[in-house]
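Journal club prep, notes for RB
We'll compare a predicted complex against what the paper describes. Inputs for the magnesium ion case:
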Amino acid sequence: MKIICIGRNYAEHARELNNPLPAKPLFFLKPDSALLTNNNPFYIPDFSHDVHHELEIVIKINRLGKHINQKFAHRYYSEIGLGIDFTARDIQQECKQNGWPWEIAKSFDGSAPLGDFVPKENLDLKNLNFRLDINQKTRQQGNTSDLIFHFDELIAYISRFLTLKIGDLIFTGTPEGVGPVKLNDHLEGYLEEKKLLDLKVK
Ligand code: MG
């Protein structure tokens, strides 16, 4: 399986990092070794002093597809969940300045914690609130009505380039409020009022 992550998909987040808004979806990959499941703790890697949380809604692909028409993209996933796109911001900054790929800042072991999934039926996918609390304080809050490229548009776009396979995950981008995590932080992710993600930083 592969993990596809979308960058700059919420305007306010692009602005907080002084990035221009993309004219088309921007994506990069994480390997399966980045996955962190079962609420296992996240260990801050020793190569970064500025690891940021990016809470994101995650789509789980449930059918094989290539060149998927946007009209039919909704048939390619039945569940959504929450994940964190951990980013070594100091290293990413160095990559951006030098025009290097981002992988070293984005795809390290444990950089993709994944919470529980819920069926997408009965959810209003175009108006979903989600948030990240750290130590009981809300630090990120988003609503899918603010997505620049919505889920079905992302699936159509990505599948022009990559074959989507059962079990592939799409991290759909983070809203504003990203920031560093520190030792012993307790991260809790909510989709509406349902807690789907719970992990500690070690
Ligand atoms: Mg991200």
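Talking point for the session: The mean pLDDT is 97.
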